[in-house]
Each structure stands twice: as structure tokens, then as C-alpha cells.
Amino acid sequence: MSKLEFDAHKEAFMSLPDDQVKDPFMPVSVTIQMAENLAVWAKNDVEQLAKAGLDITLLDALPTRGGALRYIQAEWMSDKNTRSEYVQKWKEDSPEGYELQADMEHYFRFAFHKYPDLLKRVDEIAENSGHADMIQDLMDYATLGHDNQALLEGVGFDLLLLDRAKTLANSLSETLAYNNNDKNTSSELKNQRDRAFIYLYQAIQEVNRVGQFVFWRNPERKKGYVNTYKN
Questions:
Q1: Residue 126 DSSP one-character state
Q2: In angstroms, rounded to a whole number, what is the distance separating the alpha carbons of residues 148 and 217?
Q3: Domain residue spans in the chain?
């Protein structure tokens, strides 16, 4: 798995026409192994393949195109797994955030019912909705609560929740930011992986095409140029 191989082939596979790019229709690991096997098999037939018009540089490129695909597949899978962890973390932690947001609004309105300016501030905090707003609300309620602890204690509010709101807001903010910002990165990595796959498969196809032509009457040699993969 080599980033050098990836970098060496990146310009070529990124230049593939968009209409040629598609999701892998074979397992990536199987395709890479197929390319490596084919490169070894075809070494004995270089002269015949070249005579039939094969660009022999494709034979040397099979393993390195495979290395490029192996590298970007690993990068994409790593990113995908990390993203899944953050998605799961949001699913686990965000319900507490929304519950705490609702609890704080409930207690704050009751505690501040004699203070119009404080109630107005609660109205402002509770004005919008959504994930980002929930996170901001937790921070705002925590700040407002710290400034008016006596009023909150008077209605039985647990003051420890003020610090919990700040901690949770910081954690949720990081998780949400990763989930939002990583979408483009993940999409680009997948695009590169798909292109690297097609780029490798096209080389395999071309070598197989010529090999089957050359050895059409020699089944023992022809078999090495046949894609035997089945879903």
C-alpha cells in the first residue's frame, strides 16, 4: 500500500470521464489480487502480447495501479469508520442535549417569572431550533444560569447542570462539526476510490482482451486471461 503509487497514478485516474466512473462491481481486494496475478502470468507472454498490439507498460502498471487502489481504499475505509463513530456518538449524546435544553427552559421560565428582562433573555435563547441552536442554547442557558444561581436554587434547579450544559455543548459541537464538515471529504475519497478502481479494471480488461485473442487456440495459456470472478 503506497501513497507514492497513489500519487503517481492520481492525475490519470482523476482525468477519467465521469461517465466511466461507477461503484466497484467487484470486491476491491479481489480486483487488486487479480491484477497482481495477471501481471505475473503475462510476464511469460510479453512478446506475443506486444505483437498483438498490447501496450506493454500496462503490465508493469498493473501492480502499481493496484497499489494506488489499495491505498485510497484504506483511506476511504478509515474515514468511513471514523465518520460512523461520530455519527454514533451524536446519536448517543444528542438526546441528553435536547432533554437538558428543554429542562433548562422549563426551570428558567419558572424561576424568572417576576423578572421581565430575564424572561426576555429566555425567549431569545429559545427562539430558534435545530442541532446547532440546541448546542448554542446550552451555552447560553449555562451563562445565564451562572449569573442567577440564587433564583434557580429557589425553584429546586440542580446547579451542577449548568457546568454539564457547557461540557455537553462543547462535546456536541465538536461531534456535529465533524459530521458536517467531513461529508465533502468522505465524498471526495469515495470518488477517488471509484476512479482508482475503474482505472485498474480497465488495465485488467485490456490485458485480458489481448491475451484471449493471442491464445484463442491455447486454453492452458488463455485461462490466465479470463476473469473468473462471480458474484
A1: T
A2: 91
A3: 3-225
